[in-house]
Amino acid sequence: MGVNRLNGNGIVSTGGVIMAPDNTGVPLLVNPDYLYNNFRTYQIKVIDASYNPNQFVDYQTFQQRQYYGNFVSLRTQFVNYDYNELHILNAVHFNIDIATYPTRNQLYTLYPPALFQQYVRMLGINQNDYIVVYSRDTLGGMRYAAAVWELFRIYNHTRISVLNGGLNAWRSAGYETTANIKWLQFNQMVDAIFKKLIW
Asked: Could you say which residues form the signal peptide (predicted)?
């Protein structure tokens, strides 16, 4: 099994370990060895998509508390204790309940691109970053990771892959985890990433 790198053009070289690449040149799935070999290049941002559906706030409460687009308050409301207790080193937590909002008829409504962009900036995600997302839930840690993968692609950020097997696969491979929470400053993300938004 070869060592895998990002080449000089920012395109992923597979090295024989990537499954089901799509036509963007970015793999749909990566394994723990691939992530370990690449994420220290700082060209990869790792997202923990662990989710607790019991924290859901109904749309009336959401409106009363003026949560719409108030990502600082939402991060206080939706704390993921699984992430806080254990996650991949340097991973940031992405919460679907913060990245979307509830309405009367829909639990997860998409924000306009500019507001989604604000939340992504809070996580330290830049326009050209290659993202690997994982979770720790059922279906091999793939359920919520796949939802976050799809959400980023809706907003036209296609440089994103899912860690096959999630956190359990990472730990089984013997790679490092931590309880240290990574707090990030706002980054400058170019608006062009969202110009081709697909609704």
From this structure: none
Q: Domain containing 25: what range?
A: 19-194
Q: How many residues does the chain have?
A: 199
Is 199 part of any domain?
A: no
pTM for the full predicted model: 0.79
Contacts of 2 (CB under 8 A, 6+ apart): 15, 16, 17
Q: Which two structure tokens, joined as six digits, stand for 194?
A: 């969202």
Q: What is the H or E stretch that residue 40 is in? A: none
* Spatial separation of the C-alpha atoms in residues 92 and 47, rounded to whole Å: 5
pLDDT, tens digit, for every residue of 111-162?
999 999 999 988 998 878 899 999 997 777 788 999 999 999 999 998 999 9
Report pLDDT digits (tens) over 35-74. 998 877 667 899 999 988 776 788 899 888 899 999 999 9
Give yes or no for a contact between 145 and 49, defined as CB atoms under 8 angstroms apart: yes
Residues 39 and 46: beta-carbon distance below 8 Å: yes
CA distances from 113 to 13, 121, 132 (A): 30, 12, 21
Query: Does some domain include residue 11?
Result: no
Phi first, then psi, for residue 40 (nearest 5°) are -80, -5
Closest to 31 measured CA to CA, from 137, 125, 161: 161
Q: Is residue 7 part of a domain?
A: no
- 3-state class of 96 per DSSP? helix
What CATH number is given to the structural domain containing 23?
3.40.250.10
Q: Which residue reads 């696969």 in tokens?
A: 169
